[in-house]
Amino acid sequence: MFKGVLFDLDGVITDTAEFHYLAWKKLGDEIGIPFDRSFNEQLKGVSREDSLTLLLAHGKKEEQFSKTEFLELAKRKNDYYLEMIQSITPKDVFPGILELLKDLRANNIKISLASASKNGPFLLAKMDLESYFDAIADPAKVANGKPEPDIFLLAAKEIGLTPRDCIGIEDAKAGIAAIIASGAQPIGVGRSEDLGEDIPIVPDTASLTFDYLKKTWQPNA
């Protein structure tokens, strides 16, 4: 039996993806870089700084900003995003997630957040979910973002487990790759065309039940 579950946040617990898109688009407009939904797909699951690097490369403006200006741009995007997510409430938790968290706690399964978002604690608090989490992996403490495994390694460590004893839940290809690289067992939320044919996948979070997690778990995989 697995001993821990490592959750991504965006697209698994709630959806702030639209707010990220609007915030990046606003910044892109301000610095003269076209930003559309197609390019936005490349930023899913990617850290803020790495996303900004991709955006500047997309606009061929990597050399136009100093390190200080780069950090100011990253902060500006986050300020836009934070302004937009003030409206999030417990009603924005995806279907089935609260029930899953309750079942995991009732069965003494450790729960950790493995999100690239530095706003994870704020968002969990807005949705009244922070009490269900035993740990929140701080993305500022990892050297590499997804698809590297660092955040999932830290998320498992923070709850005193090795990834081999954990299930990781993700909705992005980069996140699935990070889970697999960490040694945890992945479950994808979405479509196999996007996430991979050889892993357990549910079409939506309502299908993420404790029973489903138990059925997909492969001891000593």
Automatic annotation (TrEMBL):
Catalytic class of the enzyme: isomerase
Any single Gene Ontology cellular-component annotation: cytoplasm
One matching Pfam family: Hydrolase
GO molecular function (one): beta-phosphoglucomutase activity
Reactions that this protein is recorded to catalyse: beta-D-glucose 1-phosphate = beta-D-glucose 6-phosphate
Known EC number: 5.4.2.6
Binding sites annotated in the UniProt record for Mg(2+): D8, D10, E170, D171
UniProt KW keywords: Carbohydrate metabolism, Cytoplasm, Isomerase, Magnesium, Metal-binding, Phosphoprotein
CDD domains linked: HAD_BPGM
Entries under InterPro entries matching the protein: B-phosphoglucomutase_hydrolase (IPR010976), Beta-PGM (IPR010972), Beta-PGM-like (IPR051600), HAD-like_sf (IPR036412), HAD-SF_hydro_IA (IPR006439), HAD_sf (IPR023214), PGP-like_dom2 (IPR023198)
Gene Ontology terms: biological process: carbohydrate metabolic process
Similarity comment: Belongs to the HAD-like hydrolase superfamily. CbbY/CbbZ/Gph/YieH family.
Name of the protein in question: Beta-phosphoglucomutase
Gene: pgmB
